[in-house]
């Protein structure tokens, strides 16, 4: 294997292992259960990162998948993964804040994107850009930091799910936090929790309808309901769906 391949594989392992700790498994279960049937559909994934979900979308039957991300490193890895196991996914480097209309997609998704908006006006721009790419009657699905989060749980017993969340400053229009992934080797990243109603209001202002929060879904495994109880009470994430008129 070439050195560049080793570097790419290490990058993918670093960024994608968070999908496989308990909270990542619950994120996947909740997000994927909120999607409509992808068979034969077109999907645009905005802030696609390493291409984890675009690959899943193809495996679930999507006919056309486009992933965009503002990070050159992420797009390079996604293209590397596509080259190793071609699925016909197109990746482009684009910023969600300036996202053009790339087409009329049956489904548009954005995982963790909206929480990073710099201010309410930027949140509205991102929501409008996402909505502009949804075909009439199509579906938008966004995964965001949980607006109803209980920080006593997130900074305490949530550690059993693979990471904890600590507030790092005074809230303004959003609460800055540090998310520490406890899987070895541990690493941390900054995130932001917005207040209840902020995301639904932005989607409404973008002209979307039937805005609904999806129920939290946990994996079916041998750890049992007692293990998952705190995550059900206060997941670190929330998933909203909406329809284009």
Mind explaining what this structure looks like?
With 245 residues, this protein is α/β, with parallel strands linked by helices. 34% of the residues lie in helices and 27% in strands. A seven-stranded mixed β-sheet has the order 3-2-1-4-5-10-9, sandwiched between helices. Strands 6-7-8 form a three-stranded antiparallel β-sheet, with no helix packed on it. Helix 5 (120-132) crosses helix 7 (198-205). The longest helix is centred in the first third of the chain and has 14 residues, at 3-16. The termini are far apart. The model has no long low-confidence stretch (mean pLDDT 93).
Topology:
Elements: H1 3-16, H2 22-34, E1 42-46, H3 52-59, E2 64-69, H4 72-84, E3 90-93, E4 105-111, H5 120-132, E5 134-145, H6 151-154, E6 163-167, E7 175-181, E8 187-193, H7 198-205, E9 209-213, H8 224-233, E10 237-243
Parallel strand pairs: 1-2, 1-4, 2-3, 4-5
Antiparallel strand pairs: 5-10, 6-7, 7-8, 9-10
Helix pairs in contact: 5-7
What's the gist of this structure?
This protein is α/β, with parallel strands linked by helices. It has helices at 3-16, 22-34, 52-59, 72-84, 120-132, 151-154, 198-205, 224-233; strands spanning 42-46, 64-69, 90-93, 105-111, 134-145, 163-167, 175-181, 187-193, 209-213, 237-243.
Can you tag this structure with a few keywords?
alpha/beta; 27% strand; three-stranded antiparallel sheet; seven-stranded mixed sheet; 245 residues; 8 helices; single chain
The helix count comes to 8
* H/E element sequence: HHEHEHEEHEHEEEHEHE
Rg estimate, integer Å: 17 Å
Helix content: 25-40%
Quaternary state reads single chain
**Structural class of the helix and strand makeup?**
alpha/beta
The unreliable regions are: none
Please indicate the percent range of residues in DSSP E strands (runs of 2 or more).
25-35%
Number of strands: 10
Shape: globular
Adjacency order of strands in the biggest sheet: 3-2-1-4-5-10-9
Mean pLDDT: 93
Distance between the termini: 49 Å
